[in-house]
Design brief:
Layout lengths: L1 H13 L8 E3 L4 E5 L3 E12 L4 E12 L14 H6 L3 E3 L9 E4 L5 H22 L3 H13 L11 H13 L4 H17 L3 H6 L3 H11 L3
Antiparallel strand pairs: 1-2, 2-3, 3-4, 4-5, 4-6
Helix pairs in contact: 4-5, 5-6
């Protein structure tokens, strides 16, 4: 029953015309749409609420620009499939009340909840498409505040290093040296914090970044 509920939810989402071009990547619980140069995804994060005997679904919306990642495929330690699925922007619903939707395992509230979930996903997918329709939107919303020192760089992970540098190089060449300095300083700090993902690339950072600067174009 529990597996059937989630399977039915996914099937009904995909039956909506809005998602006609989406595929469901079962291993990642992700609705995925690639349109040639970029991609959109909806991760259907879910878990069991034992108290209410319900499946709670929390959609996570993602945006992926090929130009920011394709050049890095030759260096990445991740499987190619995962690289191409990984969103560079991830966010929950813009409205807190819409972040989690629960479905009773006995299907007693199913018809009402599936309509609500589909509506929420469609609305938020459309909003993230508008909000991050172009590289400039991504840069101005997430990276430019870092250059202006209005926002801190991430304190974990490594992929963002190459995404942010590529984005800055393509979109704002004048401020790229400032961004590069900040990113490399944070990479060094992360290395000393024993961030293993950074350690994998640290000795080749100059080589990797130089390759990007000499090969990436819009």
């Amino acid at each position: 029953m529990k597996k059937e509920l989630f399977k039915t939810i996914v099937s009904d989402i995909l039956s909506d015309d809005f998602f006609s071009d989406y595929k469901f990547i079962k291993s990642e619980c992700t609705l995925f749409f690639h349109n040639g140069n970029d991609a959109f995804s909806v991760i259907l994060d879910h878990w069991r609420d034992y108290e209410d005997e319900a499946c709670v679904i929390r959609p996570i919306y993602g945006r992926h620009f090929d130009v920011l990642a394709k050049w890095f495929e030759k260096y990445s330690f991740l499987p190619l499939k995962m690289q191409r699925l990984d969103p560079q922007i991830m966010q929950y619903s813009f409205s807190e009340e819409e972040q989690e939707i629960s479905f009773k395992y006995d299907f007693s509230d199913y018809d009402k909840k599936i309509q609500l979930l589909c509506s929420i996903i469609k609305k938020n997918t459309a909003e993230i498409y508008v909000k991050y329709s172009k590289l400039n939107n991504f840069y101005n919303g997430i990276v430019a505040p870092i250059v202006k020192e209005d926002k801190e760089l991430p304190e974990s992970g490594v992929d963002w290093i190459f995404v942010y540098l590529t984005l800055g190089y393509l979109v704002d060449r004048d401020n790229y040296p400032t961004l590069k300095k900040k990113v490399l300083e944070r990479a060094e700090w992360l290395l000393h914090q024993h961030e293993l993902n950074v350690a994998k690339y640290y000795n080749r950072l100059d080589e990797i970044i130089s390759y990007m600067e000499n090969n990436v174009k819009l």
